[in-house]
Amino acid sequence: MAALSRFLRATATAARGMSTVAPESSVIYPAGLAAGPNMGSSVTLVETRDLGERNVQWVFLGCPGVGKGTYASRLSQLLGVPHIATGDLVREELSSSGPLAQQLAAIVNQGKLVSDEIVIDLLSKRLENGAAKGESGFILDGFPRTIRQAEILEGVTDLDLVLNLKLREDVLIEKCLGRRICSQCGGNFNVASISVKGENGMPGIYMAPLLPPSHCTSKLITRSDDTEEVVKERLRIYNEMSKPVEEFYTSRGKLQEFDLPGGISESWPKLLEALNIEDSDHKQSAAA
Length: 288
Ligand SMILES: Nc1ncnc2c1ncn2[C@@H]1O[C@H](COP(=O)(O)OP(=O)(O)O)[C@@H](O)[C@H]1O
Known about the structure:
Helix content: 40-55%
Oligomer: single chain
Protein name: adenylate kinase
Bound molecules: adenosine-5'-diphosphate
Pfam family, one: ADK
Strand content: 15-25%
Largest sheet: 5 strands, parallel
CATH architecture: 3-Layer(aba) Sandwich
Catalytic activity: AMP + ATP = 2 ADP
InterPro entries: Adenyl_kin_sub (IPR006259), Adenylat/UMP-CMP_kin (IPR000850), Adenylat_kinase_CS (IPR033690), P-loop_NTPase (IPR027417)
Keywords: Kinase, Nucleotide-binding, Transferase
Radius of gyration: 19 Å
């Protein structure tokens, strides 16, 4: 805990003096981004890279399978900040021969949460390594997941935005079960073809599969915690432990909700619009 506190305090101080890393494509996002989220109010669009503000510090919340990783990764490339997923940090640790590996595997494979101490330790190390390489700002994905983690983060940094991605639960389960990773290149794919009719006032939803290129097809693996039983347990734990985190940020006026309307090509431009981010290349990247 102390490590994260010390580290984030140092990063925040250093970052305040830094200008935003200019992303490769033309990105325009709201003035005063550092001061608070854009909650749909009218915001003057300016090029933030000219303002000399610090890089964004965002958090992505959302149930397992909602697509936090996909959208956080795209936005991190667009905004020139690192995408830090605590699930990836946990998986890296458990695939290592480190002392925690066995203990972590047992927890993750049951769909339970790793202790706050362990996650904070892994996150601190990741942030320290990033800062040594000159990184600043972040999009955190999968952290905080408990009120305690949220309180610790709040004690050491001032988030600009907490984005809560939402999708109906039956679709979340299908998406988790369809996830595949290429064991060679690490690419993330999804073989599920989702087509749910609208009912009881809920809109229908269509999501095309995200299929791998042919050279990855024979190398696809499934995450060991993406079985139906474990996904349901992860959803249960999300509702019990992480829903309160949504309320925590709502009460601070930081939470912005985003209902995913469909697959990436449909959702990505709408997400950029909701965030008041203009990406001149978005048509090409949405189709990628
Ligand atoms: N912030 C966190 N706190 C506790 N455990 C975490 C945290 N982030 C990740 N984990 C552990 O890593 C697992 C995988 O996380 P993640 O890849 O984010 O999965 P999901 O698809 O459920 O969002 C979680 O089920 C949990 O065991």
